[in-house]
Amino acid sequence: MTIPRLRTVDSTRAFFREGYRFVGNRCAELDTDAFATRIMLRQVVCMMGEDAARQFYDGHHFTRSGAMPTTTLRQLQDKGSVQSLDGAAHAARKALFLQLLTGSEVTHIGDLFETRLAAAFKRWRKTGPIVLHDAVAEVLCDAACAWAGVPVAGETLAARTREMTAMIDGAGTAGPRAWRGLMLRRRSERWARRAIAEVRCRDAGGPPTSPIERLAQFHDQHGKPLDLTTAGVEVLNLIRPTVAVARFITFAALALHEHVNAAAWLRHDLDGRLPAFVSEVRRFYPFFPVIGGRVRQAFVWRGRRFEQGDWTLLGLHATNHDPRLWDAPEQFRPDRFVGRESSGFDLVPQGAGDHARDHRCPGEWFTIELIGRAIRQLLSQQYVVPEQLLAVPLNRFPTLPCSRLIIQSC
User: Fold this and answer.
1) Which of the residues 185, 244, 372, 376 has the least number of beta carbons within 10 Å of its own beta carbon?
2) From CA 333, how far away is CA 336, in angstroms rounded?
3) Which helix (H) or strand (E) holds 126?
4) How far is CA 114 from the centre of its chain?
5) Residue 63, helix vs strand vs coil
């Protein structure tokens, strides 16, 4: 099997017109799991599927460095962050993030979020209709900041939430949304740097007790502490992705509303079936369409030689809807996950591979826990979904229902 090339001169317009479906559509048309084209006049190979994900995330062939537009990098990760590193530097920083985002910390963030979400539902009964995505984003920001050791409230919480959501919303575009995200990111960076500086000033030499203290005291593989700018970036890389889970929670609420049979199936055995429902939400609904990589060293795959520096895009949404991996992938069917063992390269909304060695998101356990806690709350609350535009545009990155899902608590 070889990698075909599209006949069109440039696929930029098609990519933005078809959005999340672009990679999957072209692979289906060509009966392939990879193809070459140009996007923004740059040579690129687009790929999808389990084998492609395994190649992309094997830790040897690709680097994230230089693989994303600058505006996307600045808003989602930034230079010097754990996701931009490779080799020993990546391993050392990733180990810290895995310590921060696994084990008892998963239950801790879940408890903080659940308490705040239950209280929020009580408030929402008195306030009239609320936009679920925006309201849940603020609850998540509150919980994430409290967990990280930088609690915020009132106008400060509202400001931090606006900043985090603006970065996420602007990451997949250029123009006003991206400019707003970058502008508000600068405010967040100043706040994060001040927080790190304050922690270091009051450091009494004892063991760290909060995530921000662990970041402030972290030493890299050379025994050096993070500079203030990089430490501030990593504070945001703990909080912003947690706030981004509001998108999955909004889609979970949409699934409960639109897929009545699946919701009834879940209610019949909530404890046993919740993990499968959460997995199907993460598979079915669009999060980010692709992830970029640059070739670290030349290799041959699918009969094509990849040279150092070549640009490649792995279709995350396409892989999550690959008919070779998923029966009837365009149907929302949580029962497909009952008894299913993942290879680590099939369900890839937040990347693939090994969490410790590769660039798979270390916050995946937080995501799963928070979606599950939110679903339990949604099922325990009384609310109505008024008439609204619930279509999910697939040519907007990242996307949401057009109304961002309005609900009215009863």
Assistant:
1) 376
2) 6
3) helix 104-127
4) 20
5) strand
Angle 138-386-288 (CA atoms, 0-180°, nearest 5)? 50
Q: At 14, is the pLDDT very low, low, confident or very high (cuts 50, 70, 90)? A: very high
Query: Do residues 205 and 72 lie in contact, with contact meaning Cβ atoms separated by under 8 Å?
Result: no
Express each pLDDT in 51-107 by its tens digit.
999 999 988 899 887 777 777 767 776 666 666 666 787 778 888 888 999 999 999
Terminal C-alpha separation, the chain = 58
pLDDT, averaged across the chain: 92
**Which region among 114-118, 252-256, 353-357, 366-370 has the lowest average model confidence (pLDDT)?**
353-357
Phi, psi for residue 106 in degrees, rounded to 5: -65, -45
Instruction: Check: CB of residue 385 under 8 Å from CB of residue 378.
Output: no
Of residues 289, 283, 304, the one with CA closest to residue 39? 289
d(CA 410, CA 399): 28
Pick from 52-66, 274-288, 308-322: least confident? 52-66
Using CB atoms within 10 A of its CB, is residue 62 exposed (0-12), middle (13-18) or buried (19+)?
A: buried
Rounded mean pLDDT of 233-250? 96
With b for 16 or more beta-carbon neighbours within 10 A and e for fewer, the 145-176 pattern comes to bbbbbbebeeeebebbbbbbbbbbbbbbbeee
DSSP 67: -
409 in helix, strand or coil?
strand
Q: What is the residue-wise DSSP string for 10-29? A: --HHHHHHHGGGHHHHHHHH
CA distances from 56 to 80, 166, 243, 410 (A): 21, 29, 27, 48
3-state secondary structure of 66: coil
CB 181 within 8 A of CB 167: yes
How much is the pLDDT for 368? 98
Give residue 290's pLDDT. Answer: 95
In the block, tokens 């659940």 appear at 114
Residue length of the chain: 410
**Contact of 399 with 21, CB cutoff 8 Å:** no
Buried b (16+ CB within 10 A) or exposed e, 231-254: bbbbbbbbbbbbbbbbbbbbbbbb
Quote the DSSP letter at residue 40: T
Does the structure show a pLDDT above 70 at 348? Answer: yes
